[in-house]
């Protein structure tokens, strides 16, 4: 089974929002402290809904709370890696790597867990990955592993691994929550209730990571730009809230993760347009391959 039209539409909207908040973050030299403010703002905003959703559920097993903590930690890894990569490189380099690798990694993980993907989906995911590896290149003859062997690419890889972690953890946690609620609340309410818990957990993890001297200084600086942090957090919350809702509508999380990669050409295109980042032919071809792969992945 592929992905329904409703779920695909939700993921496409989230892709626009995701590209938007990355653009905001990059424009202000982001730090883990900046994303800490953004995450906690979402968690605190949704806290009343979180508490109400939990009150409607039967007793949740310990595995749910472990998955929630694991998801928050993975989100921290993702945001921290993204912030450190953006401090060193353009969106055109960081964003494709951070967004491309999770496609095949999540697919491989779901296969190891016993799920089966059709060959069309595998081909689409391969096209997405190749396309995203082309995007950072200036010249076609530059394609060599050394192009990616540097600190900014390493932090982008860390962000990609974080994406894999929270995607799989969220799928498992939502299944536990769905069983505990037993239809007591609508799926959108459940999704956003869990979203608040996840962002709150991520914010606490990020806050713990900011306890060093440098982290505290960055935290004070981020509090000085509180409005931007809150706006970024709201965009982040809306982005992943739509994704969580889409996850509840599909049996295979790898489809959702793959379709989200439409944010790659959007993010790179916005960066070229609004931040005056350079555009190169390998980059344009890569975005075309990404779009072709997304179409293949979306086939039922």
UniProtKB/TrEMBL annotation:
It holds the Pfam family EamA. SUPFAM superfamilies: Multidrug resistance efflux transporter EmrE. Residues 7-135 form the EamA domain. It comes from Microbulbifer echini. The chain crosses the membrane at residues 6-24, 33-54, 66-86, 93-113, 119-140, 147-169, 189-208, 228-247, 253-275, 282-299. This is EamA family transporter. It comes from the Bacteria. Gene3D superfamilies: 1.10.3730.20. Keywords: Membrane, Transmembrane, Transmembrane helix.
């Amino acid at each position: 089974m592929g992905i329904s039209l409703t779920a695909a539409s939700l993921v496409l909207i989230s892709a626009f929002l995701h590209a938007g908040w990355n653009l905001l973050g990059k424009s202000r030299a982001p730090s883990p402290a900046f994303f800490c403010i953004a995450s906690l703002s979402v968690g605190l905003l949704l806290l009343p809904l979180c508490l109400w959703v939990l009150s409607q559920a039967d007793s949740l097993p310990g595995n749910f709370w472990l998955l929630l903590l694991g998801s928050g930690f993975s989100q921290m890894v993702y945001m921290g890696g993204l912030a450190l990569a953006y401090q060193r490189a353009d969106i055109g380099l960081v964003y494709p790597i951070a967004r491309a690798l999770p496609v095949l990694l999540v697919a491989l993980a779901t296969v190891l867990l016993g799920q089966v993907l059709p060959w069309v989906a595998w081909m689409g995911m391969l096209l997405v990955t190749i396309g995203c590896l082309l995007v950072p290149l200036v010249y076609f003859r530059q394609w060599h592993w050394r192009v990616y062997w540097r600190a900014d690419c390493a932090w982008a890889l860390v962000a990609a691994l974080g994406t894999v972690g929270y995607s799989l953890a969220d799928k498992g946690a939502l299944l536990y929550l769905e069983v505990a609620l037993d239809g007591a609340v609508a799926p959108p309410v459940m999704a956003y209730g869990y979203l608040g818990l996840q962002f709150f957990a991520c914010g606490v993890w990020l806050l713990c990571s900011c306890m060093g001297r440098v982290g505290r200084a960055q935290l004070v600086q981020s509090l000085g730009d509180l409005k931007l942090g809150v706006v970024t957090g709201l965009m982040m919350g809306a982005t992943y809230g739509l994704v969580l809702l889409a996850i509840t509508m599909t049996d295979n999380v790898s489809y959702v993760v793959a379709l989200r990669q439409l944010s790659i050409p959007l993010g790179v295109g916005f960066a070229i347009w609004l931040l005056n980042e350079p555009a190169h032919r390998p980059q344009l071809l890569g975005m075309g391959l990404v779009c072709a792969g997304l179409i293949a992945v979306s086939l039922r």
